[in-house]
Design goal:
Elements: H1 3-19, E1 39-42, E2 56-58, H2 61-71, E3 75-82, H3 83-89, E4 101-109, E5 112-122, E6 128-139, H4 149-169, H5 173-187, H6 207-219, H7 237-259
Parallel strand pairs: 1-6
Antiparallel strand pairs: 1-2, 3-4, 4-5, 5-6
Helix pairs in contact: 1-2, 4-5, 4-6, 4-7, 5-6, 6-7
Length: 265
């Protein structure tokens, strides 16, 4: 799984734990290079000629937790959906440049919500920064309905079984092994058998949540050279593309269900 997604899982799950009084803050040196010191929370994305300092609402994740408390944030949600849906739901003018599904962090207050998006870009020092910026502020978005862990397990098992069948038929033995491992992770009863155990805050998320997240991490086969994206010699390339798109979206939707499964309603 790429660093951008790992970071947003770590950030949102620990922020939820903070709002519920389960933790006092975030580690400054979390695992897997979540880039703590290069995370900023800003009013909008800085342009080349803007002074970043004037835009900063919080200069690191722990300062952001304090900011959430100061702003009276009651709940926090992670979504992966088309930005157009949120804009329309908020009754704001559509932005022609905003298309496709994106990760959104929604902070819910008593009288409205703020919607944050993240972009990784170079700052004036040419360092890679993670800018979480206010995409929408003080909007009414109504009730949130997220896929349950049970639904995510069902959909993951379905697509992973389809991919096992596909890879066996196309003699892609290494990929068959990967997808079978992800399937086993969904039913593992031992937390020690699951990968990436330290992404979620300790003592907050269920075994089922950790099973789903582990399966997502294993099944994340997208990337550069040598990844699933490079597979070309298959009997039915259109089917390969449909299965790949289904896998990507199912993993992202499952990550949403994992993060939002805490706290229990």
């Amino acid at each position: 799984m790429n660093k951008e997604i790992l970071q947003i899982i770590f950030l949102t799950s620990h922020s939820k734990a903070f709002l519920e009084g389960k933790i006092k803050g975030m580690y400054k040196n979390p695992p897997l290079a979540y880039n703590y010191r290069n995370i900023r929370f800003v009013s909008h994305l800085p342009s080349d000629d803007e002074n970043e300092a004037r835009l900063v609402l919080a200069k690191n994740p722990n300062d952001w937790l304090a900011f959430l408390h100061q702003e009276g944030v009651l709940k926090l949600h992670l979504t992966y959906q088309p930005s157009e849906e949120l804009i329309q739901k908020a009754s704001r003018p559509l932005i022609s440049s905003v298309k496709g599904r994106h990760w959104h962090v929604i902070t819910e207050k008593e009288n409205g919500c703020d919607v944050w998006r993240c972009k990784w870009q170079l700052d004036a020092r040419k360092e890679v920064m993670s800018y979480y910026y206010l995409f929408l502020s003080d909007v009414l978005l109504g009730e949130f309905n997220f896929p349950t862990l049970e639904m995510s397990k069902l959909y993951l098992k379905e697509i992973l079984n389809d991919l096992v069948t596909f890879t066996i038929k196309n003699e892609l033995a290494n990929w068959t092994t990967v997808f079978k491992k992800a399937l086993r992770s969904l039913d593992s009863k031992k937390a020690s058998d699951l990968i990436a155990p330290d992404i979620l805050p300790s003592g907050c998320y269920s075994l089922a949540a950790r099973q789903v997240l582990s399966a997502c991490a294993i099944a994340w086969v997208f990337g550069g050279m040598g990844s699933w994206n490079d597979v070309t010699h298959v009997h039915d390339y259109d089917l390969y593309r449909r299965l790949s798109a289904n896998l990507y979206n199912t993993i992202c939707d499952s990550i949403v269900s994992v993060v939002n499964s805490f706290p229990l309603k």
